[in-house]
Amino acid sequence: DLTRIINSDEKAVVSTQSTGIEYLSPHDAVGTQELKTELLEKFNGDWKDPAWRSIVYCEKQYSAEQLDYFNTLPSERLPKIRDIMSRYLTNSDEEAKKDI
């Protein structure tokens, strides 16, 4: 049961009558509407092209291995997951490997 909504450029605060909990809307990492449109157009045009990922600034970019994984169809990812896990699992994790 919403009792108030306060909108500003920085945040939207919503409090509920029954709990009194305030909700802060998430940070808008994309920023402008123009960038949001560009991101959606690039993603919808070719989701495998990683150009849409660089619209949002971040200090650390995806590695080549991560991009390769993202560009693999979900139905074909299991061998990649097994390869990645085999490189990171320790000998004590041998039992866990059997369940993969």
Describe the structure.
The chain has helices spanning 33-45, 64-70, 78-88, 94-98; strands spanning 2-7, 12-16, 22-24. A hairpin with a 4-residue loop joins strand 1 (2-7) and strand 2 (12-16). The longest helix has 13 residues, at 33-45. It has 100 residues and is an alpha+beta fold. The protein has 4 helices and 3 strands, in the order E-E-E-H-H-H-H.
Kindly list the characteristics that best describe this protein.
100 residues; disordered N terminus; alpha+beta
Distance between the termini: 45 Å
Helix content: 25-40%
Strand content: 5-15%
What is the mean predicted local confidence, pLDDT?
A: 78
Class of secondary structure makeup: alpha+beta
Q: What is the alpha-carbon Rg in Å?
A: 21 Å
What's the SSE blueprint?
Elements (H helix, E strand, L loop, with lengths): L1 E6 L4 E5 L5 E3 L8 H13 L18 H7 L7 H11 L5 H5 L2
Antiparallel strand pairs: 1-2, 2-3
What's the gist of this structure?
The protein is an alpha+beta fold.
